[in-house]
Amino acid sequence: MANDVVTNENDRILGRDAQRNNILAARVIAETVKTTLGPKGMDKMLVDRAGSAVVTNDGVTILTEMEIEHPAAKMIVDIAKTQEKEVGDGTTTAVMLAGKFLENAEKLLDQKIHPTIITRGYRWAEEQSQKILQELAIEIDSEEELAKVASTAMTGKGAEYLKEKFAEIIVEATKIVSDSGKVNLEDIRIEKQKGMSLDDTKLIRGIVLDKSKLHSSMPSLVSGARIALVEEALEIRGPETETKLSVTSHDQLQGFLNQEDSILKAKVEKIKASGANVLFVQRGIDDLVSFYLAREGIYAVRRVSKDDMQALSKATGAELISKLSEMTSDDLGFAEEVSCVEDLNEPMTSITGCKNPKALTILIRGGTEHVLDEVKRAIEDALGDVAATLLDSKIVCGGGAVEVELCSRLKKFASGLKGRERLAVEEFANALECIPQTLAENAGLDSIDVLTELRARHDASEVNAGLNLFTGNVENTLNAGIIEPLKVKTQAIASASEVAIMILRIDDVIAAKKSLGNSGTLRNMDGYE
């Protein structure tokens, strides 16, 4: 034991025990989100220490809000975040596949098959899967098909009963901000407003800010708005160091005050001379300036965030003005209407009717904060799906159809292989069937019967045969409008296989002396106790 540097048996986990421990952690994470998959999936209630609750079936939200200590489990959470960032949907699918890949790999480990062989087989299977997915992909070129993609993404979530209306809003929004097929989702803002019903949700060709007009005497409605976006503060800057001012008479004091007043008044005159009747300022506005602006009938909002200023610039065509002294009429943007909406709980400023907006807003109305939050997540998922579809114009059939076809073709691929890698490819293929199996289970159907029928239909060359959970039947999901972006599947399989391979290659877990500065790196052994 002279060379053994381990002083505490709990500081290290070796070999097969390390692999079992990591695989178990990944499987637990996958099991946690499993029941949320599909249109018939259940919701989770996440409650923090303060008693605040979040009700959702969005995979990445559940995993982000959970307290997770185990480093291997954190690696699984990371692929959900990656899926959300890259596509915006399919997080539950990615996590479930990763868990199932590892579960099936454990069967091979029990048969004394070396992890290196398993990971090599998994890499071959993943590469072949990507090729097959490209063969199965279907080109789309109509807004109707994009709406079906959005509807599929929202099915089973809080917005399901209005999915057709929301799908139209989403497709129109992405079409407006699209630049040669590429959509920057940051250009589509989602604002929530309590009051009225979800049916009152609408697309605004402009921006909605959660800020009100600065002065009560300012107009509540400005038609034909000429909009100025000023980054500079409209106030007198105080000295940066301690300063003393000596005055010897009342006239001197009054002159000093009058000079300050004239400087502020000149700022307002400059704004008025440019032709602006609506003003958004990134920094502060002096109360005296606010009074002068109100007297001139200029609508003003102060302390607008940098992100909001950039969005306003994209929507209205206005230039961001760093120095007020350099402002001209050419810097102004346009909107048909700027209004202060004060009839609900929180006053807002609505900028609508922009001529060629490159940024716009989806305003969600609803009765409670929980409803608004869940609908927002559903719309974000659908936006991600539509944006991904617009980028490559390719979709695949949903309802488990693509996974069953992948499984079938991968097994044919495996039959031509020699060596133990063949077993790994077969287990990879079998893992893909967890998606249709879980969809059936979550809908209360017999998963064995469903899988048996799906396999039979695909063996008969019905590549689009999938599970329609609204009828409970296996049918052509392409004709039923149950479709998903190709990117969702390619990204989910790539991410899931990568993390499975990484975890399988770990054969020794050692407690480090201090934090290694990476959320996916071992910080302590609490997760292993």
Overview of this protein structure:
The protein is α+β, with helices and mostly antiparallel strands and 529 residues long. It folds into two domains: 9-139 and 396-528, GroEL-like equatorial domain (GROEL, domain 1, Orthogonal Bundle); 207-356, GroEL. Helices cover 47% and strands 16% of the residues. The chain has 16 helices and 19 strands. The protein has helices at 15-34, 59-65, 71-86, 91-110, 115-136, 143-154, 163-177, 250-274, 287-295, 306-316, 369-392, 401-415, 421-432, 434-442, 447-459, 486-504; strands spanning 12-14, 44-47, 53-56, 138-139, 188-194, 202-204, 207-209, 221-230, 278-281, 299-301, 320-321, 333-341, 348-352, 360-366, 394-397, 465-468, 473-476, 483-485, 508-510. The strands form six sheets. Strands 7, 8, 9, 10, 11, 12 and 13 form a seven-stranded mixed sheet that branches. Strands 4-15-18 form a three-stranded antiparallel sheet. Strands 5-14-6 form a three-stranded mixed sheet, with helices on one face. Strand 2 (44-47) and strand 3 form a beta hairpin. The longest helix has 25 residues, at 250-274. The radius of gyration is 29 Å and the shape is elongated. The two termini are 25 Å apart. Mean pLDDT is 85; it is low at 1-9 and 518-529.
Topology:
Blueprint: E1 12-14, H1 15-34, E2 44-47, E3 53-56, H2 59-65, H3 71-86, H4 91-110, H5 115-136, E4 138-139, H6 143-154, H7 163-177, E5 188-194, E6 202-204, E7 207-209, E8 221-230, H8 250-274, E9 278-281, H9 287-295, E10 299-301, H10 306-316, E11 320-321, E12 333-341, E13 348-352, E14 360-366, H11 369-392, E15 394-397, H12 401-415, H13 421-432, H14 434-442, H15 447-459, E16 465-468, E17 473-476, E18 483-485, H16 486-504, E19 508-510
Parallel strand pairs: 5-14, 8-9, 8-11, 9-10
Antiparallel strand pairs: 1-19, 2-3, 4-15, 6-14, 7-13, 8-12, 12-13, 15-18, 16-17
